[in-house]
């Protein structure tokens, strides 16, 4: 049943008004809908039937979609939502539905509102057929138009009485103006009419009295509630009785708002056209000219219309103009591209024009549009002067018209980009060369400067036709005519790809991070959002001309900006940066403390933490000289600068006889004082080819010159020397182009000094070689150190482990425990450093495998539980039951991350609790899930300004933290890097002295068909009482139980639980914490057992921080405690215990499941005949392995080998059942020994590697050599025992 229908039944029982509404006003249907969302509604069957019959549609579901398409119903909805719930009075209206040729359906609608506790405000709308209509004049009702006017959706019909009030309005009138009929009838017809139109309306009304029966047209504007002012074409007709006395005024109207707008727009368009629009008759006489004819050619409209077209055309152009008109007249199609011809100006001058012609199909007049192209033709001639130089330069040259569309590109552009001149002509160069990584802001700046007709220079990332990216240094210069009008733009693009790549590589190697090092007079600043503290660097203060001890604040800093645009702009930028993190880069004006006006470039960026801006910072640069230079260029009278003289490359012209010319850049590059001196120099002097011993180079130079004569163009690198004071040589990039001038062959040489680039390339190569050598030495050192440290540490850890399992007194046990913990701590530090080194080298890889999330979380919680108990901390494990149990991930690295986070939480928490929590964020696909792992503590917290620093290598919050808590400071760095391999990152929420939460989100693939856990025999478990002083732990247990629909109550103390149970409240089982303030768990159970009745036998499960079997067994027998669970409680353990309670009536009581490690220890083997070969060159490690194997397999035969050769001989001699092989040994290493053993015939004997190395790929090398398993030193007894049992069982 629909929720709204259910709610209607409830409302009927408590609100009589609704019953009255249904009885009186809903005879043809009822609709109930939500005030917040009218589409969420329910309609009764009667309403659906009414709509189906009246609108000719099929009866649908409970939501009548067709009703919402009726304009009058939409109007009623709007009014109802505005009225309700402020007003409780019913709202009345009319709904009119018209469907094709069917008669219109009219329904009276009455709506009222009612409040629902579950759904909020609801509106009930009752419908009943409305067959009563106000009478129209007989003049209309007696005609066939009556029904059409009644149903019309295009024509308004109204009648007005002699008082000027509305007597009748049709439905379309109400819908169009957004009014109910009740709001109109009896009201003045002048209501809503624009005041300026009232007088005109009254005048037409008077004409109806004077001439009744005659229609009187009038255009009136009237306000619509929905769409503002609407314009309507009306006809008013006075209706008179049989005596000729006027009784009423009948009005018909239709909407012309859009029609008038189109006419106005067209008029404005023609008035503002820059081109000339004119028409001529078939005889060639002007019949119309647009106003732009006068402004462009000086002739007035009066002196033009009626005159012959030929009077204004140049005689030399008669033929081409009449030919074009003839073609257009005969074919009806304009000549493609129009016709270029001259038109006479009133002052007698001639202007070039491009004219296109069309034929008016009705009047057969010729319609022409013409625009002035005089400047375009002039500029074409000027551009030819640039063609020779621009065509042959190595720079890419692009010329556009004044609108920015390409008219010409040089050969270098075509060669590099892959576009030919025909492809790009008429296209926008900014759109043509942009690509996926092109900075849109840079293109916007170029476009903005071009629009303002300014010189602009930018570095832009462009793309060739094939999609290959390249960088250019772009300079765009506008070209102006004698009147100051921009006619063209010339863009010079110099390829700087090599420089960009070199800059990028040098920046990475030298770690140049400062944004402002490359510019002069650049300061820095920071503003902290929380405190409002503002910092200025010394350069920033210098630019503002304030003392070095000046302390700025936000308000005074903004006041330095010049009043007006600059101050408003920086105010908006700072506000947006603090509110939304929006960056900015602006050029603004400031007034210094000494009253000097400067131009500055201000750059701002935001630091966002958890979606909130905590700091904005940036750079502050004095760009006054740059701006002054821009202003000087802008105000310069120079309209065009020769490309030949402006390029920074040396350009030299020569032929077979000698040098012909050079530019200033060439004189400067070679250190020559004048062009005359240069021309007097013999050919070859620039390279020293005329000196002794240069015969080979001279021959090579002649070959280059010959190549340009053969191919037309040739490029190469060449060594030159400088003259004047500096006699140094330099490397240059040379481009030779062959040109023909006056039938003579001239070679143009474009020479670019690439000394700095060559030097940068050498530095880059040397830096890369040094870095690679250092990385190789570092890897070798770490591999050797790993082996050398782990080898002795193996003995320390292993023998300590064995010694702790012997009979020691309490003091000895404590000392050995400290030794064991210290050795493992040292191992953790070594592992951290090695992991960090692998991460730095990019050699750490993930190994996904089937992983039990519940088991891993339980393991890591157990690993830190002991540390937490020593500090009296509560350890919480919060894993919802809907978490998939088995996923594909690297279990080792996931465990490493969680252990690190939990260990840190315990380390930095002195009181309170630690919580490990898993959440299921979203289901990415059918099997992929995104999980959130979080570790929360109640420790010291982290200051916001130090929160980023803790993720840096070898760093903690501050140096005092290191001294107080210890550690390498690598844990979080390694964890974050491991998460990076999982496409995740570590995040932090922390408050000083309140604790921290570290969390990360990771997506893993679940393993389909794997059940989380099984649970049986629980028919009697329906309610549970949880007793724990930690409310978080209580909530976690409640959530676990709720997943299986088990109700749970929480009590925060033993006293509260006792009161609840003694009052008669019954539960199937009680979960009670052992350690609580006041009454602890044991004391509470004792008191419960002394009560009378069923509560004395209440089943109890005791929760404890540790499993002291001897002590708890006594309590179990004494107090009838059914189960003991170790905290933090795992979901499997909880439900297994509850399942076991369900078996109590069927099976004798039994102990909880034996731990896996106890079960393993209880297994026995026949070991008397087992032979084990141990290959180990380190005597202590040999003794350690023998001691462990002696305890694991007592009575087995242990065979020793001190190196690989002895191992091979012993293997052949004794035929062992299993081999433990060290890797690094003298004479022959473990790899070689294993390969030789595998070459021998006989049964396959397991060989297990014992290695102190941990470098990437070592495990794979062992397996490749023929080994079966891999153990990393230091080896514990449990690890060794697991390997022995695994491989011996496989053999059996």
From TrEMBL:
Domain Response regulatory span(s) in chain numbering: 1023-1142, 1171-1288
Query: Which GO terms label this protein's molecular function in UniProt?
Result: ATP binding; phosphorelay sensor kinase activity
| PAS domain sequence ranges | 142-199, 262-332, 382-437
Top-rank EC class of the record's enzyme:
transferase
Q: Which intervals hold domain PAC?
A: 337-385, 449-508, 584-635
Domain spans labelled Histidine kinase: 784-1006
Q: Which Gene3D superfamilies match?
A: 1.10.287.130, 3.40.50.2300, Histidine kinase-like ATPase, C-terminal domain, PAS domain
* Pfam families found in the cross-reference section: HATPase_c, HisKA, PAS_3, PAS_8, PAS_9, Response_reg
Record-given protein name: Sensory/regulatory protein RpfC
Species this protein is from: Dyadobacter soli
